[in-house]
Structure formats: structure tokens, C-alpha cells
Amino acid sequence: MKKNIETFIACDAEYEDAKVVIFGAPFDSTTSYRPGARFGSAAIRHESYGLETYSPYLNCDLEDLNVYDAGDLELPMGSAEMTLDAISACTSEILNAGKIPFMLGGEHLVTLGTVREVAKKYPDLHIIHFDAHADLRDDYLGVKLSHACVLRRCHDILGDGRIHQFGIRSGERAEFGFARAGHTDLHPFSLEGLDSVADDLASSRVPVYFTIDLDVLDPSVFPGTGTPEAGGVSFDQLRKALTKVCQTVNVVALDVTELAPTLDPSGVSTAVAGKVVRELLLAINQ
Amino acid sequence: MKKNIETFIACDAEYEDAKVVIFGAPFDSTTSYRPGARFGSAAIRHESYGLETYSPYLNCDLEDLNVYDAGDLELPMGSAEMTLDAISACTSEILNAGKIPFMLGGEHLVTLGTVREVAKKYPDLHIIHFDAHADLRDDYLGVKLSHACVLRRCHDILGDGRIHQFGIRSGERAEFGFARAGHTDLHPFSLEGLDSVADDLASSRVPVYFTIDLDVLDPSVFPGTGTPEAGGVSFDQLRKALTKVCQTVNVVALDVTELAPTLDPSGVSTAVAGKVVRELLLAINQ
Amino acid sequence: MKKNIETFIACDAEYEDAKVVIFGAPFDSTTSYRPGARFGSAAIRHESYGLETYSPYLNCDLEDLNVYDAGDLELPMGSAEMTLDAISACTSEILNAGKIPFMLGGEHLVTLGTVREVAKKYPDLHIIHFDAHADLRDDYLGVKLSHACVLRRCHDILGDGRIHQFGIRSGERAEFGFARAGHTDLHPFSLEGLDSVADDLASSRVPVYFTIDLDVLDPSVFPGTGTPEAGGVSFDQLRKALTKVCQTVNVVALDVTELAPTLDPSGVSTAVAGKVVRELLLAINQ
Amino acid sequence: MKKNIETFIACDAEYEDAKVVIFGAPFDSTTSYRPGARFGSAAIRHESYGLETYSPYLNCDLEDLNVYDAGDLELPMGSAEMTLDAISACTSEILNAGKIPFMLGGEHLVTLGTVREVAKKYPDLHIIHFDAHADLRDDYLGVKLSHACVLRRCHDILGDGRIHQFGIRSGERAEFGFARAGHTDLHPFSLEGLDSVADDLASSRVPVYFTIDLDVLDPSVFPGTGTPEAGGVSFDQLRKALTKVCQTVNVVALDVTELAPTLDPSGVSTAVAGKVVRELLLAINQ
Amino acid sequence: MKKNIETFIACDAEYEDAKVVIFGAPFDSTTSYRPGARFGSAAIRHESYGLETYSPYLNCDLEDLNVYDAGDLELPMGSAEMTLDAISACTSEILNAGKIPFMLGGEHLVTLGTVREVAKKYPDLHIIHFDAHADLRDDYLGVKLSHACVLRRCHDILGDGRIHQFGIRSGERAEFGFARAGHTDLHPFSLEGLDSVADDLASSRVPVYFTIDLDVLDPSVFPGTGTPEAGGVSFDQLRKALTKVCQTVNVVALDVTELAPTLDPSGVSTAVAGKVVRELLLAINQ
Amino acid sequence: MKKNIETFIACDAEYEDAKVVIFGAPFDSTTSYRPGARFGSAAIRHESYGLETYSPYLNCDLEDLNVYDAGDLELPMGSAEMTLDAISACTSEILNAGKIPFMLGGEHLVTLGTVREVAKKYPDLHIIHFDAHADLRDDYLGVKLSHACVLRRCHDILGDGRIHQFGIRSGERAEFGFARAGHTDLHPFSLEGLDSVADDLASSRVPVYFTIDLDVLDPSVFPGTGTPEAGGVSFDQLRKALTKVCQTVNVVALDVTELAPTLDPSGVSTAVAGKVVRELLLAINQ
User: Fold this and answer.
1) Which of B61, B248, E214, F143 has the highest local Cβ count within 10 Å?
2) Which fold has domain F15-284?
3) Do C54 and F176 touch (CB under 8 A)?
């Protein structure tokens, strides 16, 4: 009798054969407003059976790929340090096996666990960051390891000019000031400007970490997130942009964060997140 | 003391006087993902009292029309065969009286019950089909009478070139292949191309069955459906397109399916569905 | 890297070692009122991680048992016949391996798939049935394979005096008449009388199929079900009764049905169902 | 083709033949805390199709009764005066036809519209009142026609000793003082004492108005109400009590109020309310 | 120990220093379809802590303004007259202190309470009105003080040509006729034409009352309202339009109405409303 | 114009005059299953306006008491250490002023912040603990400061025989073993035995900390909590027990924790929690 193995739809390759390895980081202890992102990765996986494996946009099918889904890490709520260590350990194992880590959050802080590990392997790493929020605070009520500070912590590691932010439409005045001072390459409000950034990064073949906070989407299509911000991008805009990134730049690791499925009782947000993951998997494997 | 007759708002004509007859087909047994479309027709009728009878888009008023609303059929959950027979019988009665059947689903399979009856009367029938999904599978886990196969079953009846599909953005590779092989006239992703198709059908005055799976709408405006698919059309795009169809081609029967009202606790999906029905009634009666 | 195997909490034995085998039957196509039981088995499994493995009531721990969880069957919505065949096949395999099948519904019709197979192996089978509804209709709108008829279909197989019904507080007049005519042993409204029935069945060591429709519980503690019926039993009453059954009679197969988790947004119904499953597993293994 | 007449299940008698006439009063403008009772009557009617017509408690069937359901009044939200006038007019018509009015609320203020009319016909009227709240305020923020004052307004009409209140567990100190001063016969916290009150009223054959604010039930079984008050009665306690009243005293009119269905997304509250209505109809017709 | 003073985020000026004074009008008794707007003002205030005080659109920060938030009025549900009197009294006090009243509804009827007071001080007052509904009925089921009549009541005070309506896409035929007859300046469907109207009003420096019924937004981004109307404006369209109004014309008072937060369990509607209020405060203070 | 001060209903004393001081601890970062308790204290306060100030059970009125409500602490999500420090500081200030701290959680870990401070002042402190869960783990996935360990941490401070636990019906085998070994005085499943424990503590006049995890209630009446456990106590049982404690023993500080209001869309859980707080305030002030 078969075991009950649950994966993102059609991501049932053997580990050895996989080019991309999915894992979940179900953590949301530092969420300051509305928690629930801890349920994101399991929901994306579980509800992926409502999707088709075939993308008419890309004319590709997940059935043709080799993706491994390692399930969710067991993370200790309340301890950001131990959580980030567990994420880094998992990332390291995947990188050492020569595969691409694809993390499903969880809140956005989990990105720090992967980025710090990826940056060890790729010291010239750049980050492409889609988000509604700048996430550039130095601390949040005294806490340095907070979702609101995650890109600032990444900047601590990577330094100026390496972080390319798109869709940003919320933050403190100081965060926008930090970006304007040249520390990050911030493109407010929309995904405009992405094509030229992607083309530049592609031409230099630098390794890129691609992190998508799903609240970059407009709350109309993605209400299920802790801090919805009106004025976001449409699904088609996101879909085209992520395809551009995956098909041009050298993506060495990626993540999708901040789905809080219980905040959207219609289930649409989870369905959208699953479709984003499918398109990412297909585009990155082309 | 008056009896408690409940109809779609202002659709209170006598049967004899009616040009259009509404009836509901509250069935969703073959829904593969999230059920609830069985509650669609009653919700559209019940919540129609939150609408105005007047459309400022068309400058027409339901008060001026003669529409009869026959309520919902009593359908045996679990038996697609018996359900389709009941729908066909009702359709036949309406057609024989020289009226236009307007069915409210229910899941999309119910369309087969009307189409097979309408095709008997109009052997040269075409179908205009708005949907997110191709619905062209030959079977679903061995089941032939499934919502996922309904247009394929219609194709079994009508043959090649008679089915005009718009807005399709989800399906198996084989379904898109079936369409591309010329069996149906599939327009992916949007309603583009509708105007010329409608004009062609209008010029030849062929009879047309018009079926709208409401998930053709973007989930942002219509989350209350079993299988929401991001990347759909806006309400205004749908409104203009359905007006075009009703005002140009010879619509001999029509349906609106796949509202699952309980999946959208905000009630917006039901309100949208009601407005679609109002605009259809007004446009088809012009 | 480990595979993502999802089981009911601590039910991670190897198949060969297992005494009890759990499987899910995610089907609800014949539900006449409010669907959603298809999501029951997966929810029980997924949310079991909010439970403890230890029962202070029984002073036992799931960690000490050998239970295998085979996951959910893939069932074709819309076809009761094919669904029941798939359930029977799975039941047969488990019985042939000398193990106890423990099915998680799904709607109550799924019980027919197991009972007809168990009755082949144990022709002297009795059924202990906890439910709010008699489920003794001969048909439902002409459909014989309906949740509302499931015990009647079991009676077709087993004959008079073999079905012991408890907690029944809803049904047509004819169903109560059928029971009163001696066809079943119906105990209305509560679980009273169970002890003596269980003792009788225990003393004769007849094989017993134990089916629990969770709507036997009062809707206050279990709102998440298709047809809630006020006036049901409390959790403690159910817990004591199921422990009595499992610890005295010769239970050769069992099921738990009719959790519709999405109907209870608080999640309490799923948590209750999981606790029922835990107590059943512990009691039946003692 | 049949018209779509919607009634409480099986209440499809002709008006002339009916002994009891149901009508709805969908009004909640004076609700001070959480509105939504306006949707109560329609929900009870619409969801009654999830009930059986047969009561195993009473061994009676709605199919054997002659009840007419007149649907909902059209009431002007925002105007308590006009609303009460419309209710009184409807009550008068039913009383003049020699039938028993059975009103479904709406908020509790609607009771004033019936009581003032019934008291004209039966000057020696008593009221049996089940409720969590005393509803004896003289005004609410200056408003005299408020749900919180409705029994006080009834007292204005009937005077001391005519109102028998049960289950009351919430109110201002002054309201309890008003009752203790002998103006009403208030039985706090439970339905204890009802039997002797009912027997007294029965022996004198005085006409009785029976008003049930459903929040007399414990919120565990009836959360869908504007102001839930923990510590209420169980469904079985209510069922037995209402049967006692209907089978002993001379009930000349009755109502059931304060279901706010949208406050309980599980739908259990509506199902409970429907079962209360069924038991009332059966008991009052015996 | 500090008192628990709750304000819209950063609106913590002393009354004397404030240029703008916020107050809430939690009333919805005349809502004809789905109530809940009574909870709007408190929700906007309470959930404002999920917003940033800084607007990257305007490059301004609430921290730099002097705004006072007086909390919610205590209003008697069920009495429109007493409610409007309380609103007028509060408005008068703020106007007399030389400040700008900024009311948070509540249903749209509350606008009458402010407008009639503002019109006393500014007899040449104009109104800019964003809404999905014309609100021009003369009465609603006989009630003159209804949300559906509020702009008609304002027209009673101001007369022809003073009310500039945008985004209107729903109403009775008579309401559109009333506007077309020249009584109001109605711009259907969108915010087109606003710029020239605003420029005209700016050049003449007439005092303007700015009332935003949030259902002018498309239900995709703002489902939490009593009567959602598909086909509305996007958040960015609204944001740009309100900025235009506040930065050009002489706004002497304003309001934001018709958020019904409980109708949108995702919380997005409340977040959107809060962002609208923030942008209004920043634009009007520039 | 008055400031918008929000308190638990009628808890508007001046700080100097108050005997009891309420404060909220909106923290839930260590919640392992379903977060949301961070919203508990604000919801209790905000929804208290649906309660009466008068208790007919105790014949007392909050209007007669002097209670101060200091609002919610601002706590850094993600840092248990900093959170507990902030709670301890607030507790210390209240104790030093000779008042009784009454904390509203938040998750149960917050109790450690108060207990450790109260134990400094009262070294002979005992704890009366109502809960479904033992909370006696030494760590949770390596984390010592977890809600699942809070009573164990209290035991670290107070030692054996000082903690009296009631209603416990869930925990690991090791936790029950720890209690059975005599470290705590654990009364499983119900509140039985409380009277004699309370009488003993009363006769010795030892200072007592009273902590109520609201999940001691049955999920039927209190579904809105992170980890609901069927088989709990009724509201009346809890009400009587807390009255007994407050009226007999020397309660020097107390808390109420684990309301997660968003998990119960009916709002009943919040209403129940508010009523518990009212009864505690009234009983402790007698």
C-alpha cells in the first residue's frame, strides 16, 4: 500500500534527479500585524491539486520537470534565531547538492536564513525583491530579526547596490530615505524598470536571489496576507515579470513568502500563490 | 393574503407573456475541487433584491420586460444522468412554448442538459463559451459526465468549428491540443476576438447558445467559484462582451454557471452574478 | 532529504507491522444539503498535529501503537458506483492482509463500500451505528446510492436485527416506521442502551462494524457537518460510548464520517473529529 | 410551469384552510449592538429544506398540518413607527380571519407590533417570554421604540402581572428592579418554574402570546444572534418547554425572533431556529 | 500610568492645535440591504496601526500634522432624527472652533447631519460626491431620511448645480432622470471629468464639502460594504482623484462612509479605507 | 471636545482611586498551533460594550467599582524575553502602587511575566490555574520560553506543591507524569476539587495568583482559541468556580489568556471572555 506522500502538484522527482528543491518554512513569530503566514507553505502544497500542471502561458508542463518537494521544516515558534539556523542548514544541504533551493514561507524574515547561506556560496550575489513594503527598518521595537527588517539584514551582508526592489509602496520615511541614499535600488509602486535591471544582471551573469513577497500583488487579487497594501500589481503583471526574471537572469535560489491563507476565506489567495509557484518552476526550468 | 413568490428581481411576468424563462439547476455533484455551485441559482435570485432594476449602461429597466422565473428544479444529487434528463425536459418545455431558456447553474455540467435539447431544435447550433477552463477533457478519472468534460460532450453533439471559446486560461495540455487541432475555436486568456466572431455569427443568423462560466472573471472580482483562476477578465470587459453577443447574434438559449456563493463570504460574487444576469436579460430583450 | 509523508499524528508504522490501517474516502457527491465532507479526511490528518499523542482519559499514547495511514483514495466525484468500488477494493486489500480497516469519510455513503466487503468476510456481521439521522430511506429523489439511504443498503445486505442505531433524532416518518417494524434496532435521541447492546455483542463475539457519523454530536460542539441536528450528544458522552464499544465488542472495521471542515471556520469540528479518531485508535488497540 | 413559491417546509396550505399563518418581519434598525436579524425570517424559511417534516419527538408531521406562509413583509428600515404599523396591519388581518399569527423576526421590537394588536382582541392577554435579556428599559439612549424596551412597552399596554419572563440573565440593575417590584413575573437564568406558570395559565384559559427571543439559548448552540449571552438553556430544555407551553396554554399568537444568520457562518443557528419553528408548529396544532 | 487613548494613527494633536478634527458617526439604521457600516469608523481607527504614517505617494508624514481624533459619537440606533441632530451639534462645535470636520461613517445618511450644518456657515457650498449610487431618491419605502435619499436631501438644501457626482453606476431610472434634468452634475461610471470640475471650483474658491462613499471603489478592492456594485474605480484612480480635490479646491469639511468591515473577513476593505483616510489627511493639510 | 479613551466597560476610575488595574499583553509569538491571541485583550475591551455592567448572578454593578484600564502594552513580536520584561515592569509598577494587576492576554506565556514579579513581592505565592493543557513541558522544540512550558517555568520559581491545576485534559505523557510525581497539584478534566483547595488556601490566607486559560471552557462555548480541546467545562461551571476563588482566597494578581477572537467569526468567544472578566472584577471587589 502506497505511503501518503504530499508534494506540490507533480513535484515528485527523486531527490537525486531534481534540479530544484522546494521546502517550506512555516514561521511567522515576528509578524507585527496579522499572523498566519505559518500556514502558507502547507496551503500552497495542499491546494495545488486544484491547479493544472500545464501552463498555457508558457506551453510547458510540470510533468516534464524534475522537482523535489521536501515538505515543511519543523520550526520552533518564538525563536527567530533557531528558525533561521534550521533554514540555513536546509539551504546549505541543497546548495551543496548542486540544486536550486526554492523556499515557501512563512513570513518574510525566513528569507534571511536562505540569503545568508546563498551569499556564502555566491559572494557576488544580487537580490531581486518584489514586495509592497521596503522591509528596510534597522529594528522593529528593538527587535533586529523582524520581517520588517529583513532586507536591511540582507543589506548588512551584501552591501550597497546589490538589492533591487520593485513594487514598494509602503514604509517609514527613513526606509525610503535609506534607499534613496543609494543603499538599495528601489523602484516604487510598480514593476516598471524591471526589464532593464534584469537585462543588466543577465548580461553580467551575476548570481541572483529572487524573493517574492506576495503582498506585492494588489489586495484585490491577494487579500490573504498579513499587511495588505492597496495599489499593488495585477497577477498578469507579476506573471510576466517573474517569467522575465527566471528566463533571463541567473537565479540561484528563490522564495515566495507571506501567504496567510486563513485571512482569505475564499481561498483565492492560496490559488494565486500556487499559480505563481507553478509559473516560477516552469520558467526557471526552461 | 399574497403568496410568497420569489423571483429574480422584477421577473414576475405571467408564463404566457414571457419571452425569456429563467430556471435554476442546483447541481454540483461532479465538481472535482470545491463544491457549492448548487447554491448559485437560489443566491442569485435571493440577492437580486440588492440590485436596481434599471441599468444605466443600457438605459433599460427590467420593469419593462416580460421575464418568467420558474425557480429551481429539484435535482437528485449524485446522479448526473437523472439531473441532465430533468434539465432537458424543462428546456424542451420552454423551447416548445417558443420562449428562450435562461438557465442558472449549478456547475457547468448542467449546460449539457440544455445544449443537447437546444441542438435538437436547432441542428446548426453554435456555442459561444466564456470560461477560464477549456472543459474539453474526454473524461475525468473515468467519468464522462463531468464539469471538466462538458464542452467536449457538446462537441460530441455539434462537431468541429461550432464552439467558440473565450477567456480560456487553464486546462490540460491535451485539451489545448484538442482545440488547436481545430475541433474548437479557442481564444485564450481574454475576450479578444469576440467582436469578429459575433459579427460573423450575426451575419449568418445561425442560432447560438451562450454559456458563461462566471470563473471567466478574474478572482479579484469573482472569488466565489469552485476553481478560481487568476488572470481573468474584468467586470466591464465581461459586461461589454455579453452586451455585444446579445445585441448582435441570434441567442436562442443561454446560461450562467459556477457561482458558489458560500465560498465568498463577502457576498460580492453573488452581487456580480446578479448584475451579469440583469445585463443579459436587458440586452437579450432589446 | 526526507520525503514529505503526511499521516494522522504518530500513525507512521510500516504497513507490515500495522494492526490498523487508516485510509480516507474524500467523496460527497450525494450530499443533499450542504457539501464539504470530501475535505474531512485530509483535514483530520492535517490538523492532527494540534493534538497530543497521549490520552489522559485512557492513559495511552499513539506513539506505542502500530497504525498505518494510507492517505486518501483518489475518487471520481459524480460517480457513486466507481467510488464504492474503489473503497471496496482498498478494504479488501486491508482485510486480506489481516488488518483492521479504519476509513475516514467523506459523506456517509462511503460506509457501503466497506460494509459490503467486510460482510463478505464476516457473514454474521453486526453494525453499531452512531448518527443523528436514520439513513434508512429506500431512495432519495430516485437515487438508491445516497447518503440518506446508506443504512438501508446495509440492511439489504445484512437483514433484520443486525444494525444497532444510536442517537437518531431525525428522519422521515417512514424511516422510523421501518425501524419500529423490527428491521433495525433503533435507539432514538441518545446513546442510552448502548452498554447492554455492547455487552450482548461482546458475549457472542460476533464481528462488528462500527460506523460513527459525527453529526451524532450536538452541533454546539460539532457544527462542521452537512446537516446539523440540534439535540445531540456531548463529546464526553461520545468518548465514553466509543471507548465502551472498542474495549468490549469485536470491532473488525470502523469508520468516522461527515466532517465538513469548511462549514466550521473556527476549526473546532476538525479538532473534535481528530480527538475522536485518537480515542478510537487507542481504545481499539488496547 | 409552476411558480416559485417559497414557504417554510411543508407550510403550503391554502390561506382559507390554514389554522396558523406565518409571516416574516425583517427589521433590525434599533439593534444596538450587532445587526443582522433582518435576515432571520428568510433564512429560516430558505434553510428549512434541510429539516425533515417529521418530528420523532412528537411523532407528528408537518405534512399533516394546514399552515400558510405569507412570506416577509416589506418594511422600511430606519422607521420603527411605520414598521410596527405594517406588522399590526398584517396581524389584524390574520386575527380577523380567525387564525393564529406566527411571526418570524427580525429583532425583538417587532413583537410590539403584534402584541398591541392581539391585546386589542384579547384584553386579558398574558405573555410568556423566553429571552436572555429582560428588555424592560424605559428607553435606550432616548429611544422608546427599541428592542431593549420591547417588554416594557408591552407592559405599558398590559400592566402588572401579565408578563412571565424566563431565562433572563442580562439587563440593567433597574430592569431587574422593575421586575422585582412586581411589574413582571421574572424567572432568572433558566426555564425553571415554567411548568407551574403554564399550568396556572392553562387552568384559567386566558389567552397567551408566546414570544421566544432565540438568544435564550446558550450561545454554544445558537451563536447567530446580535447579543449572545453565555449561560443559556440547551436546545432540549427549550424544546421541552415550548412543547409544554403549546400543549397546555391557550396560545393565540406567537413569534420567534433575533436569529441573525450571517453572524454564524456555520449555519447551525439557522438550523436550530428552523427546528424550533417546526416543533412549535407541530405542538400548537396538536 | 497612561490612559488608553485610541486615535487614528498619529492623530494625537491637542484639540486647540488641530486644523482637522476627526469624529465617527457609527450609524446604519436606514441601510436597506446589508447593515454593518456602524462598525466602520471604529475599524478604520483600530486597524490604522497596520498602516505607515508616511505616504510615499505624497512624500508626507502624518507625524508632521496636527489632527485631533474625537472618537465616535454615541448615537441612538433606530432614530435617524436624533442621530442627525447629534452629528450636526458636533459639526457645529468644530466649525465654530475654525477647524475642518472630517467625519467617518457609518452609512451615507450621516452626511446630511454635517452638510446641513456646513451649509449654514457656507451658503455657497458645493458638494463633490464620489459614489456608486446616485442616492437621489425622494424617499425609500416612504422614508425620507434614508441613505438612498441623502444627496436628494442635500439638494433640498443647496439647490441645482451644486452637487458634482462621480463614479455613479447604480440607481433607479428616476434618479438618473433627476440628474439629467440638471438638478445635479452627474458623471456616470468613472471619475472622468473630475479634473475640470475641480479646477473650476478652485478658480472660484467656493467652499466644498467632499463626501466619499467608499463603494465608488470596485468591489474587488473594497468588498466590505453594504451594496457592492461591480464596475467601480481602482484604488489608484481614487487616490489620484482625492489628491486632486484636496490639493486644488477649498475643502471645508469632508467625510468617508459605508465601510462595513464585518462583510469583508479578509480585512482588506478596512485597510483600504484607512489608506484613503491617510491620503486625505495628508493632501488636505498640504 | 473629549478624548477617545477606550476602557473595558465602566472601568474608568482614576488610577489613584483604583483597586484593580487592567492591562493587556498582546503577544502570541510562541503559539505553536494557531496564532491570534495577540488580538484578545483589545477585543475584550472593544466588545465589552455589548455587555451590561450589572451582574444578576452577583447582584453587583461595575459602575460601583474603581477599576483602571491601562490599555495594551506595546510588545515586540518575536522576542519573548523583551516581552516578558515589559510585562514585569508594568506588573511591578502596579504592585508598588498597592493595586491588584489584572492582565488580559495574549497567549499563556505572558503569565510568566507577571508571576515572576508577583512572586518577588509574595514569596509564599500559590497559583490557581484553570486550563485545558498542563503547560508543563520543559521545552518546546528546544524553546524554554513557550506557552507550552509556562507553568513549568512558574514551577521553576515557586517549587513543588504551589501550583493547583484544574480542568487539565491535554498534555504529553511526561507532563502528567511530572504532575503525578507531586510537583504540581493537578486535577484533571474538570473543576472538581476546587472548593476544598480554595478553602484551604483561604484559611491560610496565602497570596494567590489566579490564571485562567480560557480554553478550560468547552470549545462549544469558546471556539475562539488556538488549541481547542473538546470535553471542557461549561460557562456556568467556570463562573461559579471563579466566583468561589475570588470570594474566598486572597487573590493578589490575576490574568485571563488565550482568547483568539479572529478564530471565532461569530464573536461568541469574545463575548464570553468579556463576561468572565466582568464576573472576576465584581467578585474580586466584593
Assistant:
1) E214
2) Arginase; Chain A (3.40.800)
3) yes
B141/C30 touch (CB, cutoff 8 Å), yes or no? no
Structure confidence by residue, pLDDT tens digits, D229-262: 999 999 999 999 999 999 999 999 999 999 999 9
**Helices within E36-133 (DSSP H only):** 40-47, 80-96, 110-121
| Cβ burial D21-49 (10 Å sphere, 16+ → b, else e) | bbbbbbbbbbbbbbbbbbbbbbbbbbbbe
Kind plus residue range of the DSSP H or E element containing B257: strand B250-257
Residue closest to F26 by CA, chosen among F77, F68, F61: F77
Residue listed under C-alpha cell 459525527:
C214
Closest partner CB to A264 (pick from E50, E218, E266): E266
CA distances, D106 to each of B92, F212, F268 (Å)? 42, 37, 20
Asked if E149 and E137 touch (Cβ cutoff 8 Å), the reply is yes
Nearest to A1 among C1, C15, C46 (CB): C15
C33 close to D (CB below 8 A): yes
Tell whether C49 lies on the interface with F, counting CB pairs under 8 A.
Answer: yes
Residue A2: what pLDDT? 87
Quote the cell numbers at residue A91. 539551504
CA distance D125 to E14: 58
For residue F80, which residues of chain A lie inside 8 Å, CB to CB? 78
Chain E residues with CB under 8 Å of A189 CB are 56-57
Q: Peptide bond preceding F106: is omega within 30 degrees of 0, i.e. cis?
A: yes
Cell digits for B188? 485564450
Per the listing, cell 460580492 goes with B268
Contacts of C70 (CB under 8 A, 6+ apart): A1, A2, A3, A4, C15, C21, C22, C23, C90
Beta strands in chain E (DSSP E): 20-25, 54-55, 60-61, 67-72, 100-105, 126-130, 163-168, 185-188, 207-213, 250-257
Is F17 an interface residue toward E (CB < 8 Å)? no
The x, y and z cell numbers of residue D113, run together, are: 407590533
- Whether chain F has a CB inside 8 Å of the CB on A146: the answer is yes
Sequential DSSP letters for F236-252: HHHHHHHHHHHHHSEEE
Q: Which of D38, A175, B243, F54 is nearest to E29 (CA)?
A: D38
Q: Give per-residue pLDDT as tens, F82-106.
A: 999 999 999 999 999 999 999 999 9
The DSSP code for C256 is E
pTM above 0.90, yes or no: yes
For residue A246, which amino acid is it?
Answer: C
Residue A226: is the preceding peptide bond cis (ω within 30°)?
Answer: no
Residue F100 in grid coordinates: 491588584
Cα end-to-end span (Å), chain C: 35
Domain ranges of chain B: 15-284
C-alpha cell at B30: 461532479
